[in-house]
Design a protein that fits this description.
The complex is a heterodimer of chains A (163) and B (269). Chain A is α+β, with helices and mostly antiparallel strands. Chain A contains two helices and nine strands; from the N terminus they run αβββαββββββ. In chain A, the strands form two sheets. A five-stranded mixed β-sheet of chain A has the order 4-3-2-6-7, with helices on one face. The chains are: A alpha+beta (163), B mainly beta (269). Chain B: Keywords: Signal.
Chain lengths: 163, 269
């Protein structure tokens, strides 16, 4: 019984490079802003397809649901439809700095998506602050690296697409 | 009546006390800032505690609202209402001149100190006379926190009676009359505490409409040595000015004053 489990684990480890073959790493950068009225921003990272339809919500850093709507595009495209599945991807708000987020090339249902054109979306909204949306088109299935322009609530970010 | 007063005061002070630095900004927004009508005219005012400019979040108690007429006389608040997300009151402007509407909270005393081998920072509420500190408290410092929210509304011809200063408490000196703030023209406001210039005070200025745009468009200003803040508005419409003063004071109750002053005014085209 125990051995069987172990075999399964080894198998999984051996397979993992293949499973990881198609992945996108997003280095989310939250700038240091400071001040007495600084609260950590709410952040959503999600993927849209070539027709701007949401494919998957990768990560949401949040507190109360009241302010999810302030990530306006994410809420309109994904948040207001994906309520049930949110728990798997949400976490607490993050401090300023760089935080790595991985999209494993799957859709909301966990199935692999075909190679092709997608858009990586990073949206940040801060109370007593601004709202920033960064969109980076990518070609899934190629090796690519992008660096995005800094916005008010999002610093320069690296997006790395790996075959 | 007495009970209601007490309840509202308690609600307001809870709002003011709420995790000190994180208290929501309290502001008022009138339906009009300038009137040309020849008769008496009613305006209506929204009052709320909210980070949005100008969007509603939490209602506030209205017992501390004071209205001053063009001769400096106290005037009565009209019909009022406290909802779940905002408070509303009306007021009647009968004679020509500039009126002042102010919501001036009582000072709340907060004492900070460090204790123990690791210098753990702690806070306690109460003035220097009231606060009870544990033995071994060090770096004890008491701050008198106060929130003041205000706006000015002018019926026909502006005057300056309600803008006169006394040299007591936190005061706004309208070097530019609040009914004369114009897009593209430099405006100058001066601030003092007990007559002393609020030198170096940090001031935030935000135009209305944060809920419907990406950038907060906040302009960060700093008062000069004489307590004067200068700015040239780049867009018209209502603006919220938020001044945050930290100043050492000579008082038996506190070592420093912390004032958050919020002024709503209109930038004219």
């Amino acid at each position: 019984m125990k051995r069987k489990h172990l075999a399964g684990l080894v198998c999984g480890l051996l397979l993992s490079p293949m499973v990881m073959a198609q992945q996108v790493e997003i280095q989310v950068n939250l700038p240091e802003i400071g001040g007495a009225m600084y609260y950590r921003p709410y952040v959503a990272v999600w993927i849209e397809d070539a027709s701007d339809n949401s494919v998957k919500t990768v990560t949401v850093w949040r507190k109360e649901a009241d302010w999810l709507k302030d990530m306006r595009r994410w809420w309109r495209k994904a948040g207001r439809y994906d309520q049930g599945e949110l728990d798997a991807v949400t976490g607490a708000t993050r401090r300023p700095g760089t935080h790595s987020v991985i999209w494993d090339g799957t859709n909301q249902q966990g199935q692999k998506v075909p190679a092709g054109r997608y858009t990586v979306n990073i949206e940040a909204a801060r109370e007593h602050g601004s709202r920033s949306l960064v969109r980076q088109p990518i070609e899934l299935g190629k090796n690519q690296t992008f660096t995005t322009e800094a916005a008010e609530e999002l610093g320069r970010m690296t997006i790395k697409v790996t075959r | 009546m007495k009970k209601r007063n007490w309840l509202v005061a308690a609600t307001l002070s809870a709002a003011l006390l709420a995790p000190t630095a994180q208290a929501h900004p309290i502001w008022m927004l009138p339906s009009e800032f300038n009137l040309s009508t020849e008769e008496a005219f009613w305006i209506t005012v929204d009052a709320t505690a909210s980070h949005g400019v100008f969007s509603f979040d939490k209602p506030i108690g209205l017992d501390n609202v004071s209205i001053y007429g063009p001769e400096g006389e106290r005037r009565r608040i009209g019909p009022y209402y406290k909802g779940q997300r905002r408070s509303v009151f009306d007021l009647q402007l009968e004679t020509s001149g500039t009126y002042k509407v102010e919501l001036r909270g009582q000072p709340r005393y907060m004492t900070s100190y460090v204790i123990g081998e690791r210098n753990t920072p702690r806070r306690a509420f109460g003035s220097k006379l009231e606060v009870q500190l544990p033995e071994g408290a060090r770096d004890v410092r008491t701050t008198a926190m106060q929130t003041i929210s205000a706006f000015y509304v002018t019926h026909r011809t502006p005057n300056t009676k309600v803008l006169e200063t006394t040299g007591e408490g936190f005061e706004f000196h309208a070097l530019t009359h609040p009914s004369d703030v114009i897009k593209g023209e430099e405006a100058r406001f001066r601030f003092t505490l007990d007559g002393k210039p609020a030198a170096g005070m940090k001031v935030e200025l935000v135009p209305q409409g944060t809920a419907w745009r990406d950038s907060r468009m906040q302009v960060d200003l700093e008062a000069d040595a004489d307590g004067v803040v200068r700015f040239t508005p780049t867009q018209t419409g209502p603006h919220l000015l938020s001044a945050n003063l930290r100043m050492d004071i000579d008082s038996p109750l506190a070592d420093a004053a912390g004032v958050n002053y919020l002024l709503s005014f209109e930038v004219l085209p």
